Amino acid sequence: MGNALAISGGPRLTEREWPRWPQSGERALKSLEDVLASGRWTISCAYQGRQSYERQFAAAFAEYCRSAMCVPMATGTASLAIALEACGVGAGDEVIVPGLSWVASASAVLGINAVPVLVDVDPATYCLDPAAVESAITERTRAITVVHAYSAVADLDSLLDIAQRHGLPLIEDCAHAHGAGYGDWPVGAFGAAGVFSMQGSKLLTCGEGGALVTDDAEISNRAEHLRADGRVLRQEPVGVGEMELEETGRLMGSNACLSEFHAAVLLDQLALLDGQNARRVRAADHLTGRLTDMGMTVQDTSPGTTARAYYRYMVRLPDEVLAVAPVDRIARALTAELGFPVMLTHRPLNDNPLHRPASRRRFATDARYLQRVDPARFDLPVAKRIHESVVSFGHEVLLAPLDAIDDIARAFRKVLDNVREIHR
Ligand SMILES: *Cc1c(COP(=O)(O)O)cnc(C)c1O
Description:
- Helix content is 37%, strand content 14%.
- It contains 14 helices and 15 strands.
- Pyridoxal-5'-phosphate binds at residues 75-77, 80, 101-102, 104-105, 147, 173, 175-176, 197, 199, 210.
């Protein structure tokens, strides 16, 4: 029984405690008390005589992304939908979306009444495949959204070239990629707009939050209207007790403002991000060396990448192993050895139980529209193959010391050596 896998009742490879996520910094508690006492819990309440945390975070994050402007928002999904609308996308327009992503990539498009066109990904980077994008463009295409997925940066050179040739805005979804770089420049600053999620699992988080960054003053102004019920921040100084948001009526919006509590936590977290990302890269490089020696292929990134941000660490299992046991059983066996969740990729969006446009009456306008948004009409063979061959785990694990990272390599060795046992 000494070598038996933990999943079949043998001893676990390690009993160690793994790092958890999120982790709060030293400033957060003080800042949160400050917000509580300030008399202003959101920018949509009256000005109280000093700069809001929301404005402080907007300035800090714009600088971090080397972008001229940042519009913070309540969620990443809202940021994505608002970025599309700010770029002029609307009812019936087609938007190119990577077929291997979180459901928000498609649902944000549906949310503005547009049509997500699911496009396949690159087998090495798991990010949007430029050649597949090119062949999915029609006369109804109005935007391309790209996700820098898991730990990769997409092939921005090719995608920007395609976007430019077709006169389409490229929107970068950086929900996995806070701090990643391409050509020595931060992601999010390449497209017409970059959007971020600060939901609780992300590399920069306040529980629920989001942001849009851009160099385009018109996109920023439209995004401000869209996220604050048609109001924008006044340019001129306001007095205590006055509203900092001005009702222009130029563009109707809805409410997706980020609260002062969330902005305060984000400022605290932003100060920690680069240090955490550097530790993740060190651990990931170490593990990649060990796993490639065992014949595994880890997720690659585009050649222009100058800094990786690991949201999830992704490993493709060898074909001969997958011929013995399916990927989900192997993930469960690894989970049993290690004591943290080893997961699969997202389910491809053409076969994902969370992506069901027909289940919502607001989208079900007519049969033709339902046909256009039907996920099953898209073919995503590469995404499917990745989903059936890749295991992954979350970025918090990469904050563990290197001897713990060695345990991960040992667990892979043990499971692969005993893969026949999984089937019994
Ligand atoms: C998390 C995520 C989003 C959505 O962000 P929320 O803040 O959860 O709304 C969008 N796109 C991708 C790729 C994500 O992972």
